Amino acid sequence: MTRTIVLVSVEAVHEAGGIALIVEALDGYPIATRHYEADGARARIVVAGATGVPQGFYRIFATHAAERGFDVITFDYRGVGGSAPTTLRGFRMDYRDWARLDLASVLQQASGDLPLHLVSHSYGGHALGLLPDPSIVTTMHAYGTGSGWRGWMPRSEQLRVAFLWNAFGPTVVRAKGYLAWKRFGLGEDLPVDVYRQWKHWCRYPGYWFDDPEIGQEMQGLFARVTVPITAINAVDDRWSSPLARDAFFDHYTSVDVVRRDLRPADVGQSGIGHMGYFRRGSKPLWDELLDELDAQSPR
Question: Could you give the number of structural domains in the chain?
Answer without folding.
Answer: 1
